[in-house]
Inverse folding.
């Protein structure tokens, strides 16, 4: 009897250490954040001393035009960044999916930006965007074009460009891998069926790459909502609130405005948003697996 | 339909030449089978005709027009691939109509064509399914359906049956034969399976090492192989080869070796006379040996039975003749015991002689 119970508990005992670590490292801070978001909490207080205010922080934020502005900046940043990166990344992959001499060197060069630390990327671009001594404006001046106020009036566009430069390679390598694993014979069949290069891309290559592209896009979207360092280094959110994405606002609310409760509530809003994308990504992969299973059973029934 | 002509076709990959001047003329509506062991260049030849491989030297003419610089789509051909090469994201109907849709044909015409072809191939119930939801045989049919819907002048097949299991392969082979009679197009078919070649072809082209060894009707190749390779490649079980020597005596011309001394038939003798005392290889098909205890020594082989493989109505005996092994096809009713020494009469028209140096038929 005792033996049977012990046997039944064995798997749980094996899992216990992992569960403990997960609880400490993941659930505890998360719970702490949710708990803190219900309080009017100054960094000088312990969480116990802080006054419980219920949903007040969430309601205040919802009506706070600055928060809305910041959310809007985050959404448009994520939207433009992911859209352009997808187009350029997939486009480059389609262009470079061929055997040319030196292609492997070229591919390595292409993915270099991804390997540079975000702070360095931010500094690099800040210098290049500098209004008078920056690379861009000096080149523009040299060829007789008007100077651009990169990090001033066009700040959001500038940070978007920097992010595109850094993260397009991510989409590029994943798309290239997807392209190279496409069935060669299906593409040959399409050539014989009379498809031109464009028609092959539209009717065969892109539809077959789609599952990879969807997951890649979602991954990038989740990442784009969390971007912090590059923008922090380049603009610190300015001018005004024009480039103050949510992550940056959260960090400033906590450190400059000393409102830990509000910062926690903001983090939770962001978390809900990201959870939505993550769940939809899992739902998508799950749906694909189920579809593959259904197909397999259908075939087996036939045979 | 346009006739196809290959003129001195050469293919090189870097410094390696894999096809050495293929010269081939196919008649109108002919079912041509390129057959040979793997690496013989048959698939490369087909892919060059299709336009999927560049032509290094030489020219391909379709209907008298040089096409080797044309894109595959401009050559008026359809192709069935070994792995079917269906478009996995399209259902059967869309797979079959892809080419027509690219040509922007009217929808009504496309629907009607797809329906007609699906009916002949028994695919009507599966038109809405995707390739992943089909069994191997059905996918194979869709691949053929896709080629048929195209209505192209020439059909190319690249080992279309080799991914199917043995039973299905036999069934699809019969369907292919039926289809080729019905549609009346040029067909070029690549296989390594000599049975497919023999059963389907109007003309067989045997390839080996990047050269055409011999071409002709299945019967020509089976009865009069030009060299030892062709003789050994076609026919199942394969031809037996025995080392011997041509000897001229008063009684006639003999081919003589370790364990046998056979008199050649008159026709063969007249040719062999010129090669007296030459070292040769004697080739005899298993089906040209007939169990006959009373046959005289100069027209029979005496063999020691080692193994008997029962196949059904026929049995294949593996026997020993001197140092060589010889296979014999006999009726299963023939009373044979292992270890027995038996006499088999040799069909005088079934004796093939090959020069032992260059293996060319004498």
């Amino acid at each position: 009897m005792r033996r049977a119970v012990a046997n039944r508990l064995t798997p749980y005992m094996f899992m216990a250490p992992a569960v403990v670590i997960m609880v400490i490292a993941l659930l505890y801070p998360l719970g702490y954040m949710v708990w803190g978001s219900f309080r009017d909490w100054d960094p000088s207080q312990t969480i116990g001393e802080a006054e419980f205010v219920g949903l007040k922080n969430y309601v205040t934020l919802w009506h706070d035009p600055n928060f809305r502005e910041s959310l809007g900046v985050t959404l448009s940043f994520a939207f433009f960044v992911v859209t352009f990166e997808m187009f350029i990344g997939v486009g480059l992959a389609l262009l470079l999916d061929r055997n040319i001499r030196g292609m492997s060197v070229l591919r390595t060069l292409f993915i270099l930006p991804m390997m540079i630390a975000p702070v360095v990327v931010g500094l690099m671009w800040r210098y290049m965007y500098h209004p008078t001594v920056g690379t861009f404006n000096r080149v523009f001046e040299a060829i007789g074009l008007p100077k651009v106020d990169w990090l001033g009036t066009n700040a959001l566009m500038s940070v978007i460009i920097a992010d595109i430069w850094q993260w397009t390679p991510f989409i590029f390598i994943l798309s290239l891998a997807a392209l190279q694993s496409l069935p060669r014979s299906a593409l040959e069949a399409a050539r014989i069926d009379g498809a031109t290069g464009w028609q092959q891309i539209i009717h065969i290559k892109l539809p077959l790459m789609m599952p990879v592209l969807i997951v890649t896009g979602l991954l990038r979207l989740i990442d784009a909502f969390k971007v912090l360092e590059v923008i922090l280094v380049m603009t610190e959110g300015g001018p005004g609130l024009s480039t103050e994405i949510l992550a940056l606002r959260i960090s400033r609310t906590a450190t400059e405005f000393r409102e830990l409760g509000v910062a926690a509530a903001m983090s939770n809003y962001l978390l809900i948003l990201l959870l939505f994308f993550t769940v939809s990504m899992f739902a998508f992969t799950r749906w694909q697996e189920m579809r593959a299973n259904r197909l397999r059973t259908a075939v087996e029934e036939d045979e | 339909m346009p006739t196809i002509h290959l003129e001195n076709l050469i293919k090189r990959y870097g410094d390696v030449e894999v096809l050495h001047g293929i010269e081939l003329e196919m008649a109108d509506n002919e079912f041509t089978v390129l057959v040979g062991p793997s690496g013989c260049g048959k698939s490369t030849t087909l892919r060059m005709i299709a336009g999927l491989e560049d032509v290094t030297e030489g020219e391909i003419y379709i209907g008298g027009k040089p096409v080797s610089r044309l894109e595959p789509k401009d050559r008026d051909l359809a192709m069935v691939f070994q792995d079917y090469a269906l478009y996995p994201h399209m259902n059967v109907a869309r797979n079959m109509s892809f080419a027509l849709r690219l040509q922007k044909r009217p929808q009504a015409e496309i629907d009607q064509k797809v329906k007609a072809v699906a009916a002949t191939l028994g695919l009507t119930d599966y038109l809405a399914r995707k390739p992943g939801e089909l069994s191997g045989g059905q996918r194979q049919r869709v691949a053929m359906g896709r080629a048929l819907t195209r209505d192209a002048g020439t059909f190319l097949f690249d080992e279309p049956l080799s991914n199917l299991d043995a039973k299905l392969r036999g069934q699809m082979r019969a369907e292919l034969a039926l289809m080729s009679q019905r549609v009346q197009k040029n067909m070029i078919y690549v296989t390594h399976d000599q049975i497919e070649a023999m059963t389907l072809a109007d003309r067989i082209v045997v390839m080996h090492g990047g050269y055409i060894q011999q071409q002709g009707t299945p019967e020509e190749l089976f009865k009069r192989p030009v060299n030892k390779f062709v003789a050994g490649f076609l026919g199942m079980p394969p031809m037996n080869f025995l080392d011997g020597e041509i000897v001229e005596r008063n009684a006639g011309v003999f081919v003589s070796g370790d364990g046998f001394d056979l008199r050649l038939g008159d026709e063969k003798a007249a040719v062999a006379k010129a090669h007296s005392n030459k070292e040769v290889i004697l080739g005899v098909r298993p089906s040209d040996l007939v169990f006959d205890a009373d046959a005289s020594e100069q027209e029979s082989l005496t063999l020691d039975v080692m193994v008997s493989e029962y196949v059904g109505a026929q049995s294949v005996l593996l026997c020993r003749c001197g140092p060589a092994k010889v296979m014999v096809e006999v009726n299963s009713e023939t009373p044979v015991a292992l270890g027995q020494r038996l006499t088999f009469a040799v069909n005088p028209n079934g004796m093939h002689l090959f020069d032992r140096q260059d293996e060319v038929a004498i």
User: Anything to note?
Assistant: The domain at 240-355 of chain B is CATH 2.40.50.140 (OB fold (Dihydrolipoamide Acetyltransferase, E2P)). The longest helix of chain B spans residues 166-183. The longest strand of chain B covers residues 16-26. The radius of gyration of chain B is 25 Å.
